[in-house]
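[Meeting: bench + compute handoff]

Bench side (C.D.) handed over the final construct sequence. Compute side (W.E.) agreed to return the predicted structure before the next meeting so the bench team could plan truncations. Sequence as handed over:
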Amino acid sequence: MLDELYQEVILDHYRSPHGKGLREPFEGETHHVNPTCGDEITLRVHLDGDTVADVSYDSVGCSISQASASVLYDLVNGKSVDQAMFALDEFSRLMTGKGETEPDEDVLEDAVAFAGVSKFPARVKCALLSWMAFKDAAIRAGAKTTAEATSGEAND
């Protein structure tokens, strides 16, 4: 029954994606491709200080990659860079857990629906595509986590 609920969450995000469409302004943009299945995403990040003011994207691909981009938007848009990167780390941990990792629902919200995807290595790349694009675009936009900003270890 829980698997059915999770499948419905993924299908809802696929059918009615949140945040889709490229918008301006933005400081970082990237284009990622999953050559295994042909999923593609162009993703933009707009920062306002240490806040992810907007994430916009245009993508094509399977329901998992499309839904994952929608969930990413919900989880990082309007959050601090630190919160967004923490969500990315938690989602990555879930995806690499091979179905053995217990997701933190408080952090991941709808992204917990992807727990079953982690059992299928070929689909993990689909789910992670937008998240890796977000990380790349955030770095291009000059995002620094609190740890980087205070330690001076960030590359400019």
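W.E. noted at the follow-up: The beta strands are 28-34, 39-48, 51-60. C.D. will use this when planning the next construct.
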